[in-house]
Specification:
Elements lengths: L1 E4 L2 E7 L5 H8 L7 E9 L3 E8 L2 E8 L5 H24 L13 H10 L4 H7 L4 H24 L2 E7 L16 H20 L8 E8 L7 H11 L8 E7 L6 H9 L4 E7 L3 H7 L5 H12 L4 E8 L6 H13 L4 E6 L7 H6 L4 H24 L3 E6 L10 E5 L6 H8 L4 E4 L4 E6 L4 E6 L4 H6 L1 H21 L1
Parallel strand pairs: 2-3, 6-7, 6-14, 7-8, 8-9, 9-10, 10-11
Antiparallel strand pairs: 1-2, 3-4, 4-5, 11-13, 12-13, 15-16
Helix pairs in contact: 1-2, 3-4, 6-7, 7-8, 11-13
């Protein structure tokens, strides 16, 4: 690995090429430093020896691995190897990270695994150098999730996800397939027709549904007639009491009639995604709406008694600590039932990735520090305002080693979000760039099926998509019949 940010440079070599992607997840956490790393890992039947050289300094560790299930042994070796690398780099750079050597995107899922094994997840997280505040955060989330988690384990329901990958404009941090509607409008009518066809072929893939989630993109980019048509096609899956969410999206696409249509079709949750209340920040990231549009949209939603989620992002282009804190305060003042605070994650395909690579090292360090303060402020204020953390996930290349947290007022947690993050429910996903998941609990295995990201490719391959998706879910149905 060669990672260059002007003066910074990291070189990484290892004798364990199969584990290199795992190691690089740890190395990237220290990407603002100049480091030359060689990692020699010796794996015997019951002993692992890690020899790490960092800038000519030697770090050595050994660990006995108990014989047992080969898959579990492999997992333990990987965990030890990543921990040894983190400790070496932390000692070399004198840098302590909020999540320590924990690089997976679902810390809560790992906590559940420890609990199911009869282990103390808090002690295991401490061994991975996760800071006490984050261990406490995970503990709070597990407490909020408990009734939802237990209910899903007992009921074995599925979730239905429907993708509407169209947006008014493309944000500079976005790495999804969405493009400005001006460039994709020619596909929209055909897309809705093919989506209807796909929905017609999911019968028999599930026993019952916990939730329906229409996401994007920006689903309310659809005009009123298109929205009515879409929800008419989804109506067959709506049962009494089901959680039904539409990620309404950007405030500038809201109309009274669209909200009336959502209510008419029994939608009970919506997401408003301002990302920031700063007009300058919104302009910086490529949004066409303003703070005034956010306030108007939020006021409109209150008439229809939706459970409302409001999204914010820490680390957006040009946004100061003070400006972010102001956005948090304004979101809380609007009293939505849920507030989600994301940390900026810069991925391949995003315009911002190119710009970020050109920053000077001292600028990156200052921004990382500012984002850490932003996240701390958000936690403090949301707890003070009566919100509780109910789900959380992390991403690769996430800024400041942060996280994304969903906060909720009492009894308003989103079932769909919990199921997605903890991977405890089958997901039937329809549309472009939609990932279905089948949980084979007895085999402790998850299989995924992703549709093409490219909209024209999705449209052209719909027959194959329907066939392959039905075959995947059919495996579980057949296994259940045999048992």
């Amino acid at each position: 690995m060669n990672n260059k940010n002007n003066t910074s440079r990291i070189t990484f070599k290892t004798n364990q090429t199969a584990l290199e992607p795992e190691f690089l997840e740890v190395v990237r956490l220290f990407s603002t430093f100049s480091l030359q790393i060689y990692y020699h890992l010796q794996i015997n039947s019951n002993k692992v020896v890690s020899d790490i050289t960092v800038n000519e300094h030697q770090y050595r560790q050994e660990k006995e691995i108990e014989e047992g299930d080969p898959i579990e042994q492999k997992r333990l070796v990987k965990r030890f190897a990543k921990l040894a690398l983190y400790e070496a780099l932390s000692q070399e750079t004198h840098k302590v990270l909020p999540w320590g050597a924990l690089t997976g995107i679902r810390p809560t899922k790992l906590a559940y695994q420890y609990i199911e094994q009869g282990a103390d997840f808090k002690q295991n997280f401490a061994n991975l150098h996760v800071v006490p505040q984050n261990i406490s955060l995970v503990e709070q989330i597990l407490k909020i999730q408990k009734p939802y988690y237990q209910n899903q384990k007992a009921m074995q329901k599925a979730d239905l996800y429907i993708s509407i990958p169209f947006c008014p404009t493309r944000c500079n941090y976005c790495s999804f397939i969405t493009a400005p509607i001006s460039k994709t409008r020619q596909y929209l009518e055909k897309y809705l027709q093919i989506l209807q066809l796909e929905l017609q072929h999911i019968e028999g893939l599930y026993n019952s549904l916990s939730s329906i989630y229409i996401g994007g993109g920006t689903p309310l980019i659809l005009d009123e007639e298109q929205l009515y048509s879409l929800l008419s096609n989804v109506k067959q899956f709506v049962t009494n009491g089901i959680e039904y969410t539409v990620e309404a999206g950007r405030p500038d696409v809201f109309t009274e009639r669209k909200l009336e249509i959502l209510k008419e079709f029994a939608v009970n949750r919506i997401c408003v995604n301002p990302q920031s209340f700063s007009n300058q920040t919104l302009e910086n990231i490529g949004r066409a709406h303003t703070e005034k549009d956010i306030l108007i949209a939020m006021e409109m939603t209150k008439k229809y008694n939706f459970i409302c989620n409001c999204d914010l992002i820490a680390g957006l282009t040009g946004e100061s600590y003070e400006s972010f804190c102001e956005s948090v305060d304004k979101a809380i003042a609007l009293t939505p039932e849920n507030i989600t605070v994301h940390t900026l994650s810069i991925k391949k395909g995003a315009e911002l990735q190119v710009k970020n690579a050109m920053l000077e090292d001292d600028c990156i360090d200052k921004k990382i520090e500012a984002v850490q303060h932003m996240l701390n402020y958000a936690r403090k204020q949301l707890l003070k305002a009566g919100y509780a953390p109910y789900y959380m996930y992390r991403q690769k290349n996430i800024m400041a080693d942060g996280e994304n947290i969903g906060w909720c007022k009492p009894n308003t947690a989103c079932i769909y979000n919990i199921h997605m993050m903890e991977e405890i429910a089958d997901t039937i996903a329809c549309g472009a760039n939609a990932i279905s998941k089948v949980i084979f609990e007895k085999k402790n295995r998850i299989e995924r099926y992703g549709t093409p990201k490219d909209i024209p490719t999705y449209l052209a391959k719909i027959d194959k998509i329907i066939e392959e998706k039905r075959a995947l879910f059919g495996q579980k149905i057949n296994n259940n019949l045999k048992n």
